[in-house]
Amino acid sequence: MEQEIIALLRRREEAGIELLVRHYGALMRYIVTPILPREQDREECLSEITAKIWEKIDQFDLQKGSWSAWLTAVSRNTALNHARRQAAHDDVEELTEAVPSDQPTPEEQVMRQELQAALSAALMQLSFQDRTLFYRKYYYLQPTAQIAAELGMTERAVEGKLYRIKKRLRGRLGGVIHD
Amino acid sequence: MTDRNWDPAEERKFDAMLESGLPELPPKEIVEEVTPWRGAFNRVLVGIVFGTVTLNFLWLDYILPAIGAVLSLLGYRALRRENRWFGGCFWLTVLSSAYFFPALILNTTILAGLPMIQTLQNRMAIVGFALRLAEFVCLWRGMGRVQQKVGLAAEGNGVKSLIFWYLLVGALAAVGYSGWIIFIGVLVSYYFIIRSIYRLSKAMDEAGYTIQAVPVKVSDSRLIKIIGAALLAGGVLGYLLGGSYPMDWQEAQPDQSSDTAELKTQLAELGFPEYVLDDLSAEDLAACKGALKVVYDVQDKKVERAGTKDLRVTGVAVQLAEPEGQWVVFHHFLWTRDINFYGTEAIQLWPVYRDIDEGWAADGEVTGRLLYDRGGKTFAAPYYFLGNQTYTQDSIFWGQQSKTDVFAAFSLPRAGEHCRGYVTYQTRNIQSGYLFNSWFNYTHQRTWLQYPVITAMESRMKNCWNTAGAFYTVQDALQFYPFKEDGGRIHEIG
Question: Which of A8, A159, B211, B485 is most buried, with most CB under 10 Å away?
Fold first, then answer.
């Protein structure tokens, strides 16, 4: 199904959009919901996401990440931009929904790459469960209640675990933070 | 958590840094993991596999279904509010667990072997089968609902196949079929069905994002610990309190009448061992009135693993003057040192007429009693069970055999000294020339370590070997030629 949708979108066939929404609409909504609490915003955002995917489909590269990961990134970044627009009502610089999301200065870019490398290395020291929990919180921006429900934990347990993860990361990223 | 002393502003800055430090594209394995559906459904799936496949070794037939029941509970707990079918799955699993977990605890007691409990368990097995079938139907409908919710066509062939497979297995079990070809076929089909369900679960990932997981007040890990602790506590109590028979011990009142004393003297003069005579009840002693001859045999046996010989077994046969050819037989045992473990004991009696019915005939019932000493007093109790038991035994030599034997089942008190007892019966010699051959098989429980718990009598009925799990059997035979004038003592203390 995944290959079929990608092929249709690349051929600019609208059936691709229809299939995309049918099969991946639930995923997009799942990503967007924690970021946009209002239903109306979510509906607008979902339309935006499909439009972005239609526009940026040629940027999808399986070598860089899976189809689901790319859809997740596009949905998340579009939702974040939507939320920022709603919050500021001004010309806040938007994340580009496709990769990369930002246009920082060369110096910022170097620092960010250093941070990403350090964080990536630090995250690899965590267990898979802890890493997933971390991504849920800091990438998917899911509220604690949602994380707790989906992992069969209490909110307090989630908070405790996140605290311990952050404490470990703080120790490992100390040098990068102070730089 | 007392060291949470980070400055809030600092923490927000750190959080922002963590957010910005993550890569644009999340790793594939994280994307696959972050779903409200996969974890819960995988638990359900593994629960189905563990709960349905039975591996009868290393207690896996109990361990895997127990893990399966817990996983099913946790899986359906997360999905139960998604639709009423998943809710049905959850409550059906709760119902199954309400029977399954207490049954696991019951297996740590000897109660599980009671005929009434076994009948109940057989009925509950049928109920359990029906509940599992209903669970599969609910699962199939529940998955369909989730797919329909997002406009996808309902696919549930894997679950439908599972339902038919389960019905087939149930039908085979009902007719008692155990052929290898169908067994292998069923096993292979089961593998493919589970694989198709797994694939379906992956397909469900698309629709599964719509599922709203239910917030929990008790976390999965805590629930697992609670169930584990309850099973452990129940098991410990079961082993401590349910591992032996309730015995009716009463202080023994010795019969000090002159008739009894005279009879004892007479029997002792004929060679009847006095320590056995002292243990006989008035009725059993009276049965020896008019004794002509006494033949006895004493053997010391090693029953416990460590130490020296600890069980003295004495066989005594008393020939009566009247009626002619009448014998009274006693098989007596005496623990000569403290027992290491007090669980259940059993005596399996093979009377002289069991195998040589051309020469010997039964005359009356088997009786007997148990005794022990404490604080200078003697206590006595009837056996918990004494009578015939019909049972089926599998033997690699003779196949499946149905047998009926006399059994005595009992437990001995922890505080008792000189724990002992005897069984006695009468027999009539209906044709001379036959060997007197009476067997006494004593089965002792050496350790509490067995699951499910069975009694010494059940162990003896299941196994013909002397060493069987927690049990050990010693055998003694009183054998002599009664028609020989010198057919007296065959053995002294062995």
Answer: B211
Q: Which of A58, A88, A118 is the last residue before a domain boundary?
A: A88
Residue B488, pLDDT > 50, answer no
Q: Nearest 5 degrees, angle CA B81-CA B86-CA B91?
A: 90
Q: Is residue A173 part of a domain?
A: yes
In this prediction, residue A55 carries a pLDDT of 93
Binary contact (B28, A169; C-beta < 8 A): no
Q: Quick one: closest CA in B to A73, which residue?
A: B25
**Helix (H), strand (E) at residue A3:** helix A2-10
Report the side by side order of strands in the sheet with B385-395. B385-395, B399-410, B345-350, B436-445, B471-480, B467-468
The verdict on a CB contact (< 8 Å) between A29 and B78 is no
Mean pLDDT of chain B: 88
Q: Which of B6, B14, B19, B34 to mutate against chain A (most A CBs within 10 Å)? A: B34
What's the rounded Cα separation, in Å, for the pair A119 and A121? Answer: 5
Whether A96 is in a domain gets the answer: no
Model pTM?
A: 0.83
Residue A100 has pLDDT above 60, yes or no: no
Number of domains in chain A: 2
CB contact under 8 A, A26 and B220: no
Range of the domain at A10: 2-88
ipTM here:
0.87
* Residue A69 and residue A118 in one domain: no
A151 shares a domain with A124: yes
On whether both A53 and A124 belong to a single domain, the answer is no
